[in-house]
């Protein structure tokens, strides 16, 4: 396989994303592959790299959600070109089922890993975004794969990722976990009962091959934490409403310019959802870091939209007030200060 | 039964092993995974080398699972002697134990117990060894044989053979269930193949995307359906919803799609396609009805715009998201197909310009029931402008995600979406 200038290709791909130009993006990827580029390198260093930029544009408040989605659509079309190419590689290894757990709508990372594995000779079945555990189980019984891989980009999908892990390991099938929701190391993945964790597509290729053929069912999670997370999930709409009214009050006092207020309004649901989901994640995994990480992410998001920095502290106090009846969560929040 | 010549004492106990065989094998309904799990539980604690010999239900072909590589599956093409070794255990349902001495070159009966040269060589490496063929008998039939090998200084005393037979009885039930499940799944998947949503073709002048989310989460079968047919610069997009849910509904969607294809072969006008569909369904069985929206797409002039002819039969009409963000609801009405004779359907023509998207959706979308109320058309119409110009795939994804968020995990009806964006 001939080398190519990945930085230059990534820059060209990035420009195609910015201008939402599907034809340029798919043309570029097709050319790279036709000239012998490694499909995994194209996936990781051209498409995924470009897609990361898309996320940054949104986070910095430069792009609307619609523009982010449109650019993601361009990436998906480019991935499809690589997929068609990878399908020509003969199957030489076992079968892998790759999916996103329920409530995980970022299908791109999972499809990226799926096609990378396919390019390495694995027989891959991709189940796509927000796959209910019952549907996954059906596929596991029907296909009897050698391994499964679950992709989780958002903290709110960690509880359903745990159900995915339960479904797979109950059938003795090892699970590889990956995606930003699992954090920067294997702690959350292993706490949730995954067999292994991979930080990216390259690592996933090695990790899948190293999985044991049979694993025991994932042991139960700590009962008190599971119970409290379930209560939080059930109370989510109510908690969200209380946070929202408190937030609106604080934002009203601290925000002068109407443009800033509009910009804040467009992210408020994400900010509040994420803040509560971080508590879910910390409860289930015993890893307190999601709370601090989410607070930092919120601070960055608000700063990019010109919000008063005091709003971040305000949100932290609001969370503590709203979650006062949840003892483990309160403890986690206090510890994160 | 011939226990090993040196008759060693039991090498057990294996605490919890029988319980683990029962509970862990119940976790999977897949034959290969169930076999793999059994092999993994037995090796190396109970035996040094294990193979599971299972005749396939459909073909009768013998397949050996395991060996030095647990994950290996080895089909056997040679005839198996029914009088000796493996064949005898299978037909008689009786355990057979043989001792393979170290010094003899002859593998004494091993060829009949392990009818594959490569696997036999693996087992012979453990000499002197005891080889036990334990029948797997479930529900009155011997469905396979567990071949266990123990190497030097560890033969099979009688109590270990008795233990292995108890294990095999438990494992046999799980394996039999998995085999039956696999057999049924094969039948179902063959029948089902024609009922799955079609792979979308590439249209020369437009980009398209579609989604179906089945009410029965574990099934890939729904009563909602879509199809795209045509060629050159004349295409027909169809989306619909048959009465009922699940398998029965899916079968009717298959018939409906086929009727539409045939009708469109003769006349691609949506009004005529729907008239033909109505007549065919009405004459077949008047109790089943189908709601359909039919859109014919043809480019105008240089292809920078298109005319979309829309006709509906008891189905919500499509919505247009203009490139600039305005939303237009198409005013098209028509009676549901299949219950009344001699219906006529009216076509509405609309223009699609570059970047305009037409969204077709079934009632499962706006009738999705959340905590307080239905999702509703208002919520949909409010969401759509944000995705103007985003293309069909992001649009479908956004609507699906918004509706699923609104459902909050509650059950829902079948849901289908189809989006066409004019311009490539």
Can you describe this structure?
The complex is a heterodimer of chains A (337) and B (424). In chain A, 65% of the residues lie in helices and 8% in strands. Chain A is an alpha/beta fold and 337 residues long. Chain A has a five-stranded parallel beta sheet, with helices on both faces. In chain B, 33% of the residues lie in helices and 26% in strands. Chain B has helices at residues 17-25, 31-42, 85-92, 110-113, 117-124, 158-192, 246-266, 270-284, 363-366, 376-383, 392-407, and strands spanning 49-55, 62-66, 73-76, 96-100, 129-138, 141-150, 206-213, 224-231, 234-242, 290-300, 305-313, 319-321, 327-329, 348-353, 357-361, 415-422. In chain B, strands 3-2-1-6-5-4 form a six-stranded antiparallel beta sheet, with helices on both faces. The N and C termini of chain B lie far apart (74 Å).
Summarize the model shown:
Chain A is 65% helix and 8% strand.
- Overall geometry of chain B comes to elongated
Whole-number mean pLDDT of chain B = 91
- Largest sheet of chain A, described in full? 5 strands, parallel
Measured by residues with Cβ under 8 Å of the partner chain's Cβ, the largest interface is: A-B, 41 and 37 residues
- Helical stretch tally of chain B: 11
> What shape does the CA trace of chain A take?
flat
Distance between the termini of chain A: 51 Å
Q: What is the average of the pLDDT values of chain A?
A: 92
Strand content of chain A: 5-15%
Query: Low-confidence stretches of chain A at least 5 residues in length (pLDDT < 50)?
Result: none
Structural class of the secondary structure composition of chain B? alpha+beta
Rg of chain A:
21 Å
Count of distinct strands of chain B = 16
Number of helices of chain A: 14
Low-confidence stretches of chain B: 1-5
| Strands in their spatial order, largest beta sheet of chain A | 2-1-3-4-5
Q: What proportion strand of chain B?
A: 25-35%
Tell me the structural class of chain A: alpha/beta
- The portion of residues assigned to helices of chain A is 55-70%
Oligomer: heterodimer
Strand order of the largest sheet of chain B: 3-2-1-6-5-4
